[in-house]
């Protein structure tokens, strides 16, 4: 029916469990093949399977794909007019459907519940099950009520699926959906063929160009940017450089978007320059690289976006450049967003985790997998840290100087001014604030401005310093800075390369 020569592990076990009536909780990375796990049991078991899915666009894609295979599938959501919805309901009642996709808010309406009483479902599949988690940003009130399904239909097996893996979310899903009896299936998040590379942004366009010219001249790939403006600019610039580059973001006409997406899927060597709007449901196996010109907001986002590379199992690159300005921009966006204080705090933690991944000097894959609670005892050998070990230096004294400059200037100034103070630069701003009389003035001449910038960036990334976006990027001290200033902690810093290309040459630490 589906045309695959074999199952991917552990699809068969899941299909067996569900088919014999057991519950299952499936944690599998995006692209791993979750849908098959309920689609086959839906065909094997008596009656129609109900699939709860929060994303209308994906629902439609899946149903169309199933119909093309000859599976009797349909969906019910707010995009349908009343008569279409009624005729689908009739098909369902008349036993002419194998799979029915339903939006969560619709499933729990009295009308639907009454219909469910008439035709016992083959199973319930709850996709994107992490939406029950109040911690995640995908939280959906409706998902909480899905536990009712179990109370009303205790004999119908359920499968909950998600790509969000951390232990806390997993536990929440099991609790909230009353899946205490469910078998858990955890699939590794490792994508061994993806080489992770993260470099310091100094001249992003030149860096990207070098990366593409040296390593991906004819390849299909995705370049992610944060804003639509940057997407447009980057796409036309890459086109000027001779690449088949096309923009993709929510601000483009639907036709253009569909067209560009089609070309990306069908033609060889197309580069899509996109905001994160691109990628949901895109399934192109031979994407050879994913490049980020801006820092993703979370490790989850980074993993998802980079995960679109190398689905065919062949070598692929996940390439990212970032700088302190990225952190400031993302913090600004977060401050200006609508969320509650606790939401903002949570997002700040997530951003810090992403920064941590950028700044570590050890294996990226180990850190990435550890974030998803998957521990590896060996470095991977296929990331920039492993391939070209980073030199570190004892930055304890520099960190103390950097932080005392922040303290002495009353935590009111940004990086550039702090560096002027440390390096003893005599300029108007220094004189106006009387900073040339501070004890820290000129104590940092041994390092140049670029090196100081690197020190500050790493101190921010490690949470010793924070950026006050309301005050134009002023740095202020965090509680943890105290121990450093007292000399109680040793600080090892990355030695930033002079030119920040991440070449695959091995150099000694
Ligand atoms: P997920 O929901 O986990 O992101 P999907 O169910 O959409 O993943 O599947 C991702 C891709 O993998 C799809 O293109 C699907 O056709 C393909 N796929 C799933 N199972 C298999 C299999 N056993 N063999 C080959 N391809 C598969
Ligand atoms: Zn590694």
Automatic annotation (TrEMBL):
Name of the protein in its database record: DNA helicase RecQ
Q: Which InterPro entries match?
A: DEAD/DEAH_box_helicase_dom (IPR011545), DNA_helicase_ATP-dep_RecQ (IPR004589), DNA_helicase_ATP-dep_RecQ_bac (IPR006293), Helicase_ATP-bd (IPR014001), Helicase_C-like (IPR001650), HRDC-like_sf (IPR010997), HRDC_dom (IPR002121), HRDC_dom_sf (IPR044876)
Entry keyword set: ATP-binding, DNA damage, DNA recombination, DNA repair, DNA-binding, Helicase, Hydrolase, Isomerase, Metal-binding, Nucleotide-binding, Zinc
Q: Name one GO molecular function term.
A: DNA helicase activity
Q: Which reaction does it catalyse?
A: Couples ATP hydrolysis with the unwinding of duplex DNA by translocating in the 3'-5' direction
Cofactor(s) needed:
Zn(2+); Mg(2+)
The answer, when asked if Cell membrane is one of the entry's keywords, is no
Query: Does the keyword field hold DNA damage?
Result: yes
**Matching Pfam families:** DEAD (PF00270), Helicase_C (PF00271), HRDC (PF00570), RecQ_Zn_bind (PF16124), RQC (PF09382)
What is this enzyme's EC?
A: 5.6.2.4
- Tell me the ranges covered by the Helicase C-terminal domain, including all copies: 204-352
């Amino acid at each position: 029916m589906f045309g695959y020569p074999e199952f991917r592990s552990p699809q068969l076990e899941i299909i067996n469990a569900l088919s014999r009536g057991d519950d299952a909780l499936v944690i599998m990375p995006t692209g791993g093949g979750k849908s098959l796990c309920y689609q086959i049991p839906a065909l094997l078991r008596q009656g129609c399977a109900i699939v709860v899915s929060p994303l209308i666009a994906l629902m439609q894609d899946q149903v169309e794909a199933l119909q093309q295979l000859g599976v009797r599938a349909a969906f019910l959501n707010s995009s349908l007019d009343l008569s279409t919805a009624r005729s689908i309901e009739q098909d369902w009642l008349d036993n002419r459907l194998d799979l029915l996709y339903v939006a969560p808010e619709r499933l729990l309406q009295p009308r639907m519940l009454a219909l469910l009483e008439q035709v016992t479902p083959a199973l319930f599949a709850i996709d994107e099950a992490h939406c029950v988690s109040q911690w995640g940003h995908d939280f959906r009130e409706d998902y909480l009520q899905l536990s009712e399904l179990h109370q009303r239909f205790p004999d119908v097996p359920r499968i909950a699926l998600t790509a969000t893996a951390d232990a806390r979310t997993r536990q929440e899903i099991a609790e909230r959906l009353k899946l205490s009896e469910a078998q858990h299936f955890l699939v590794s998040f490792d994508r061994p063929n993806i080489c992770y590379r993260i470099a310091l942004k100094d001249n992003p366009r030149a860096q990207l160009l070098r990366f593409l010219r040296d390593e991906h001249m004819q390849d299909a790939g995705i370049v992610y940017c944060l804003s639509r403006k940057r997407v447009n600019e980057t796409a036309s610039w890459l086109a000027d450089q001779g690449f088949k580059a096309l923009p993709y973001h929510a601000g483009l006409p639907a036709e253009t978007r569909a067209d560009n997406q089609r070309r990306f899927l069908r033609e060889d060597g197309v580069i899509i320059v996109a905001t994160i709007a691109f990628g949901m449901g895109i399934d192109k196996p031979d994407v050879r690289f994913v490049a980020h010109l801006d820092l993703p907001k979370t490790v989850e986002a980074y993993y998802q976006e980079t995960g679109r590379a190398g689905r065919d199992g062949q070598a692929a690159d996940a390439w990212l450049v970032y700088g302190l300005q990225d952190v400031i921009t993302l913090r600004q966006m977060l401050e200006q967003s609508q969320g509650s204080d606790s939401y903002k705090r949570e997002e700040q933690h997530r951003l810090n985790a992403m920064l941590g991944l950028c700044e570590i000097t050890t294996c990226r894959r180990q850190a990435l997998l550890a974030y998803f609670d998957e521990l590896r005892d060996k470095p991977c050998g296929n990331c920039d840290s492993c391939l070209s070990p980073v030199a570190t230096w004892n930055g304890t004294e520099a960190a103390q100087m950097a932080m005392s400059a922040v303290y002495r200037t009353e935590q009111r100034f940004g990086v550039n001014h702090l560096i002027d103070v440390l390096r003893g630069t005599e300029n108007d701003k220094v004189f106006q604030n009387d900073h040339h009389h501070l004890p820290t003035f000129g104590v940092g001449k041994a390092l140049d401005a670029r090196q100081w910038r690197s020190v500050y960036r790493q101190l921010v990334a490690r949470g010793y310093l924070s950026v006050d976006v309301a005050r134009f990027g002023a740095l202020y001290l965090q509680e943890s800075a105290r121990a450093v200033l007292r000399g109680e902690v040793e600080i090892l810093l990355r030695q930033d390369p002079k030119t920040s290309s991440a070449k695959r040459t091995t150099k000694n630490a």
